[in-house]
């Protein structure tokens, strides 16, 4: 059952990542990877909410949404690739913003989600 829940969540998370990424990136100019940045922050918020409220949620919901959906929605490999690409292209400020900003904002948003989830 766990494998099916992860597959189902991933089947929704992966196309969601693509659609959100394309939607955001089409509306932003410049070299900064706003689409990937956005989906990773959304994933941090959802994972924070799930972790904070895990004591009240059934385990299958956490598996479906946390492991399946968020696992397919978020992407560390693309984050890393885009950061290196920015460095190789000489876009040092954007690379730093992507790496440091993503880590700081991602942690802060996950903590916020955790606090909200724990309060529910």
In short:
With 120 residues, this protein is mainly alpha-helical.
Please describe what this structure looks like:
The chain crosses the membrane at residues 32-50, 57-79, 99-119. InterPro entries: FluC. It is found in: Cell membrane. It is a multi-pass membrane protein. The protein is built from 5 helices and no strands. It is mainly alpha-helical. The chain has one domain (2-119). Helix 1 (2-26) runs antiparallel to helix 2. The two termini are 27 Å apart.
Which descriptors apply to this entry?
83% helix, transmembrane, mainly alpha, 5 helices, 120 residues, globular
- Give the helix level as a range of percent: over 70%
Mean pLDDT: 97
Order of helices and strands: HHHHH
- Number of extended strands: 0
Provide the structure class. Answer: mainly alpha
Radius of gyration: 15 Å
- Tell me what portion of residues adopts beta-strand conformation: under 5%
Main beta sheet: strand number and arrangement? none
Tally of helical runs? 5
Span between N and C termini?
A: 27 Å
What is the 3D shape? globular
**Domains, number:** 1
List low-confidence stretches: none
Protein name: Fluoride-specific ion channel FluC
Pfam families: CRCB
Organism: Actinoallomurus liliacearum
Family: Belongs to the fluoride channel Fluc/FEX (TC 1.A.43) family.
What's the structural blueprint in terms of helices and strands?
Layout: H1 2-26, H2 34-52, H3 59-73, H4 76-88, H5 92-119
């Amino acid at each position: 059952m766990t494998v099916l829940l992860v597959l189902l969540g991933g089947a929704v998370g992966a196309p969601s990542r693509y659609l959100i990424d394309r939607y955001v990136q089409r509306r932003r100019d410049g070299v900064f990877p706003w689409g990937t940045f956005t989906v990773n922050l959304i994933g941090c918020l959802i994972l924070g909410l799930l972790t904070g409220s895990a004591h009240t949620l059934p385990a299958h919901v956490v598996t479906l949404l946390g492991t399946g959906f968020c696992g397919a929605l978020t992407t560390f490999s693309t984050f890393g690739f885009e950061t290196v690409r920015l460095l190789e292209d000489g876009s040092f400020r954007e690379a730093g913003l992507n790496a440091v900003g993503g880590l700081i904002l991602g942690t802060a948003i996950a903590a916020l989600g955790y606090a909200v989830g724990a309060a529910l």
